Amino acid sequence: MATEIERKFLVAGDGWRDHVRASARFEQGYLCGEGPASVRVRVEDTRANLNVKAAVIGTARAEYEYPIPLTEAREMLASLCVAPPVIKTRHWVDHDGHTWEIDVFEGENAPLVVAEIELSAADETFARPDWLGDEVSDDRRYYNHALSFEPYGRWRG
């Protein structure tokens, strides 16, 4: 079984922007609502994939990902998603031996900015960049699946 070990944090400040080594625009939608897994179709610039991820909260969960034709991914996004797609730009930033993925959300999820780090073990240590804010790994609301159904912009007010 493929397992993703990932920690998720809010971003405090723009200090990371000077260290971006690559960026890509993502549009991703979900093909099912509640259940034991989320099933996602994602377009990342000119590539696409289908992803199945265990619907559990925490730092480690099963994940499977398969490349699919871009045209089919766009068709799924247009007609099969059960909630509006999540749109974001992902930036990759290297810091002290790890790569951080920083997602800057658009649309109803703006101005949310989240940083994720993938680890090889749940107890792996890493250096915290000065732009890293509070950890939200255990807060379901910050998972992309949840943001599709209840966008960040609706939380306030």
UniProtKB/TrEMBL annotation:
Domain of life: Bacteria
Source organism per UniProt: Salinisphaera orenii MK-B5
CDD domains hit by this protein: CYTH-like_CthTTM-like_1 (cd07891)
Lineage, uppermost ranks: Bacteria, Pseudomonadati, Pseudomonadota, Gammaproteobacteria, Salinisphaerales
Active-site residues, as the UniProt record annotates them: 30
SMART domains: CYTH
Sequence ranges assigned to domain CYTH in this UniProt record: 2-149
Gene3D superfamilies membership: Hypothetical Protein Pfu-838710-001
InterPro entries recorded: CYTH-like_dom_sf, CYTH_domain, NeuTTM/CthTTM-like
Pfam families given in the database record: CYTH (PF01928)
Name of the protein this chain belongs to: Adenylate cyclase
